[in-house]
Write a structure and sequence with these properties.
Length: 519
């Protein structure tokens, strides 16, 4: 590894990450993540396995229309099946049909898998690797080769594991990625294997690790030290079993501590927000003590630590939190949480402390203590700021609402009625929907659109619910996050209540108010 070396960032959140327990991304989520990672300057995104499910199939069809600045999309799949020629293999045809510039192909490097899973001879497996890569290259694709279970294979039969990656390199694979698929190796084992492969294979090498031994990040960094120029992983370490290597730990470590180039410094300053964004889309609770990006990563509580940090921040902080878009938090102070809130206020142009800032601080502190969260709800945050500054217009007043859910002829039907006042006029409307929230949304629009035709441009694009205190069972408090959009932008709004309908209505009315306020 040399100083200022460029390390390629290859993200597999949408493929490997989505295999994690309780992780599921909608089709629209996948497109949002691709755009977000492109904005951050990632090099590659592995977006799924064409043909494995209808969602991935649709994604690759629609992804052709994406206009991306830097990132390149990769399709993922396996070498051709034994007994089938590469040109007739259904899996390879699906990969080609995805029409991505890059195809990441995985093949077996561990002879145990070759003999007991594929049940073919070692030489046949090498032919599958070579034939598949050569065929895809002839079709004009760039091919990366994931040597699955490479380190297990190298430990038990180093000669064969090396033959597998040599076969891929000789067939023309552009990158050779060594995979710790079971996630059980140690950094020194990774380093030793890389040293040998680097001498035998004259292709750029990459590393793909899993976290079953808690060492995915350490193993990735060891591989870079030994010569890897591509790191694969997922945002927040999402993935099957114990997850994949966390790119949001790998990237700042490489960049801030090892002198490598991954992202532009300005983008690095926003990765804490990226972490929360992906958690919200996955509808998962963020990990507070996640290195670099967790809200507890630079939190200080009590005694000598607080005193020392106030005098000299680096006494208990390994980096300046601002470098990764995070913040210092002094938990025992009466200013608890104010740094976070001041940072949010600054993003909207209020930079100096004063009476107005104090009012917003007090309101936000109280609301975030109750359970509101504004990271993905900037629409609600701007409305709140406008209200505290006396600049929030009153477009309408929701006087009454009613929601009925009933079964009719075997179908569940939701009906909402709202009574809304606009100026000196009152509208009473009723609408049906696929669910109670959809019905409320329809009834509100029906009541308001005659006064505000611009609402016809607006649509609800996402709806998520998070239970904040599950121990309270059916009496638990819930936070609802709604995302809306028009032809110009998207915005998020938030609601909070023990009643999911009330929380949803708060977020809905905020969403409409934000649309009307921005014009």
């Amino acid at each position: 590894m040399t100083k200022n070396m460029k390390i390629e960032v290859y993200d597999t959140t949408l493929r490997d990450g989505s295999q994690g327990e309780r992780v599921s991304f909608s089709l629209e989520d996948k497109f949002k993540i691709v755009r977000k990672l492109d904005d951050f300057g990632f090099d590659y995104i592995e977006c799924g396995w064409p043909g494995s499910n209808p969602k991935d199939e649709e994604f690759f069809q629609k992804s052709r229309k994406l206009s991306l600045k830097k990132v390149k999309i990769a399709a993922f799949g396996s070498t051709c099946r034994a007994g089938t020629s590469a040109s007739n293999d259904k899996n390879l045809r699906k990969l080609l049909a995805a029409e991505t510039e890059i195809i990441t192909l995985f093949g077996k490097s561990w002879d145990l898998h070759v003999k007991k899973v594929l049940r073919i001879s070692p030489s046949e497996n090498l032919d599958l690797i070579s034939d598949s890569i050569e065929y895809l290259l002839k079709q004009g694709r760039r091919v990366f080769f994931d040597a699955e279970h490479f380190f297990d294979g190298y430990r038990e039969n180093p000669e064969y594991a090396l033959k597998s990656v040599q076969a891929a390199a000789e067939a023309g694979a552009e990158r050779i990625i060594l995979c710790d698929t079971n996630g059980g190796f140690l950094p020194e084992q990774i380093t030793a294997a890389f040293a040998v492969v680097k001498k035998k294979v004259k292709r750029p090498l990459g590393i793909h690790t899993h976290n079953d031994g808690g060492l995915a990040v350490a193993n990735t960094l060891a591989a870079v030290t030994a010569g890897a120029t591509q790191v694969q992983g997922t945002v927040n370490g999402l993935g099957e079993r114990c997850g994949n290597a966390d790119l949001l730990v790998i990237i700042p470590t490489l960049q801030l501590k090892m002198g490598c180039q991954c992202l532009e410094p300005e983008q690095l300053k926003h990765i804490s927000g990226l972490s929360r964004y992906i958690y919200e889309l996955a509808n998962l609770i963020p990990v507070n003590n996640q290195p670099f990006v967790g809200i507890s990563a630079f939190a200080h509580k009590g005694g000598v630590h607080v005193d020392a940090v106030r005098k000299e921040t680096k006494s208990y902080e390994h980096i300046d939190p601002a470098l990764v878009g995070n913040e210092r938090r002094i938990l025992v102070s009466e200013l608890a949480g104010s740094a976070t809130i001041l940072f949010k206020i600054a993003r909207f142009g209020i930079k100096q402390k004063g009476p107005e800032t104090k009012k917003i601080l007090e309101r936000l502190t109280s609301m975030e203590r109750d359970g509101y969260q504004f990271e993905a709800a900037d629409g609600s945050f701007q409305l709140l700021m406008a209200e505290e500054l006396g600049k929030r217009p009153k477009f309408f007043h929701l006087k009454e609402f009613r929601v009925i859910v009933e079964r009719k002829t075997g179908l569940i039907v939701s009906e909402a009625a709202v009574k809304v006042r606009v100026g000196d006029k009152t509208e009473h409307t009723v609408a049906e929907g696929d669910g109670p929230v959809n019905a409320l949304d329809a009834a509100l629009r029906k009541a308001l659109i005659k006064f505000y035709p611009a609402l016809a441009e607006m649509r609800l694009t996402d709806y998520k619910v998070r239970v904040l205190n599950p121990e309270a069972a059916t009496a638990a408090k819930v936070r609802v996050l709604i995302e809306s959009s028009d032809q110009n932008e998207s915005w998020g709004t938030v609601g909070l209540s023990e009643n999911i309908i009330e929380a949803s209505l708060q977020a809905l009315t905020d969403s409409i108010d934000y649309k009307l306020m921005k014009g």
